[in-house]
Amino acid sequence: PTVTYHHDGGTADVLDVEPGTSLMRAAVRNGVRGIVGECGGQAMCATCHVYVRDPYLGALPDISEDEEEMLDCTTAPRDADRSRLGCQVVVGPDLDEIEVDVPASQV
Ligand code: FES
């Protein structure tokens, strides 16, 4: 699967990611700017906040209760439709491609 992380200013990181990998894990492993992943993927820190681009919103898993709570604690404002925790979105057969916008800051 391919994940594209768009940054402020128009630059982007495009990664080829192993199936079963979360957007947060792939970003941290590859040094993508703006994704921190402080809690290690437990939906407990919100430093992996991303805004999913429109065409991919329909392919995402439902938001769990834990994710829902943490999405109210993001540093960058939550977008009712597009905000997700990067650690809770995993690429694979059901999500072969995704593009997200990375907030300017997570802290
Ligand atoms: Fe902490 Fe996603 S890594 S909430």
How many beta strands in the DSSP annotation? 5
Order of the strands making up the biggest sheet: 2-1-5-3-4
Reported for the largest beta sheet, the result is: 5 strands, mixed
Based on the coordinates given, report the CATH architecture.
Answer: Roll
Q: Which class in CATH terms?
A: Alpha Beta
> How many separate domains make up the residues?
1
Bound ligand species: FE2/S2 (inorganic) cluster
Category by helix and strand content: alpha+beta
Note the overall shape: globular
Strand content: 15-25%
**The CATH superfamily title:** Beta-grasp domain
Q: Figure out the total of helices.
A: 2
Q: Could you outline the blueprint of secondary structure elements for this entry?
A:
Blueprint: E1 2-6, E2 12-16, H1 23-29, E3 49-52, H2 65-71, E4 83-85, E5 97-101
Parallel strand pairs: 1-5
Antiparallel strand pairs: 1-2, 3-4, 3-5
Walkthrough of the structure:
With 107 residues, the chain is of the alpha+beta class. 13% of the residues lie in helices and 21% in strands. The chain is globular, with a radius of gyration of 12 Å. It starts with a strand and ends in a 6-residue tail after the last strand. 32% of the residues are buried. The structure holds FE2/S2 (inorganic) cluster.
Features of the shown structure:
107 residues, alpha+beta, Ubiquitin-like (UB roll), five-stranded mixed beta sheet, 13% helix, globular, binds FE2/S2 (inorganic) cluster
